[in-house]
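User: For a reading group we're discussing how well predicted structures match intuition. Take Protocatechuate 3,4-dioxygenase alpha subunit. Before you show the prediction, I'll give you the sequence so everyone sees exactly what went in.
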Amino acid sequence: MTTPSQTVGPYLAIGLPWADGPTVVPEGTPGAVWIRGTVTDGAGNPIPDAMIETWQADPQGRFDHPDDPRGRVPGFRGFGRCPTEPDGSYAILTLVPGAIPGESGSMQAPHIDVSVFARGLLNRVVTRIYFPDHAEANAADPVLNAVPAERRGTLIAERTADGYRFDVRLQGAAETVFFDV
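Assistant: Thanks. Here is the predicted 3D structure of Protocatechuate 3,4-dioxygenase alpha subunit, as structure tokens, for the group to look at:
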């Protein structure tokens, strides 16, 4: 007997968020920026019960992980988690990451890995946030270059007064590029 499939659902708000989940670094950290955006469905409607998770390197390109031999930055955990508000918005306070090593000695442009959980999804979807301030690194990034040129804009955040804006569109026109991981 097979078990029926279940979508990621509204239970996200019950136990997954935590009070400091949206603050990858403490408020007041020098250089901290807000990454804000809205998660929408294919019709452009906000999704009020989604969850955004982020994982990233620190400004020197190091990860807060025991497998990264380059060391850690105190106070930087590299992981954020934020449920969306009723209007579909989210906000993560972090530092812009540094470039990280890629395959065959290449470097990947500064980016933040993003997982999106939402109702109607059988599994999370995964994307990346790249930064417009790193145009040269973005142009050389092997992952970004694997995306068709006309869709790369869905992966590049927009600069705002206090950080960046990165909207996630789950379907339809201007759908965010998602990666098969």
